[in-house]
Amino acid sequence: MKDSATWIFGRGASVACNLKWIVPEDWKTLGREKQISLIKKQLKIEMDSDQVDTLPYKNLLSALSLRTNENWCHLFITTNWDYLLEKEIYNLGLQVLPKWLCDSFVFHLNGTIEELEDNSNRSPFLIETDKASDREKTVETNIAFNKIAWRQFFIVVGLSFRCEMDKFTLSILNTVEDDLPIGESCWIVVNPNETELKDTMSIIQGYLPRAKFYPIEKGLNDWINSGLTELAKVGIINK
Using CA atoms, how far apart are residues 155 and 188, in angstroms rounded to an integer? Predict the structure, then answer.
C-alpha cells in the first residue's frame, strides 16, 4: 500500500492564485441563506476575474506529477469554497488515475460553489458564523475524515485552524489519536506570516500533542518555486 501525502488547503492557497476576496463584514448581519446566496454569486464572479491566476496550482500539480516517488501519492482536501484546484486537475485531461494521485477528487470540508449534476453527497455550505454543531454528516465529509484519520503526513497551506468550523476537524482527530496513525502524524505547515505559522502549529499540537512539524515561512508560490525542498527531504518527491 502506498503512503499518501494529504494536502489541506486554506484561504492562503486561494490568495496565492490572487483570489483575495473575503465576505464583507456587513453581510454577516444578514440571514444565513441570504449570506450564502450572495457569497456564491460574488465568489463565482471573483473566480472568473482576469486577475485570478491558477498558475501556482498548475505548477504544483506539474511538480508532483513529475517528481513524486513511486511509493507515494497525493490527496487534496480544502476548506475553501472555490474550485480553482479542480479546474487545474480537469485541465490535466486525465483518462485514468495516475500513480501520483490517490484521488482526483478534491474534498471540500465546508462546501463549494461548484455546481455538479448531482451535489447530494457533497458537504453542506458552511459559513464563518456557523457552529460546529451545524455540520451535517455527508458522504464527502465522512470519506474525507476517514482518510485523514488513517494518514500520517500532511501539508497545510494557508490554513489557520482558528475558526470553530476548522477546529472541528482537529477535534474529531483528537478523539482517535491514540488508536489511529494520525496520533503520530507529521505536518508541513506553509504560511508566509511567521506569527500565523507558529499559531497554526500550536493549535494543531493542542489537539495532536505527539505531532511533528516542519514549518515553512513562505507562500505557496514561493515554496513551489524554491523546489518543494521539504517534500524531497522526507522522501515524498525526488530531488
Answer: 5
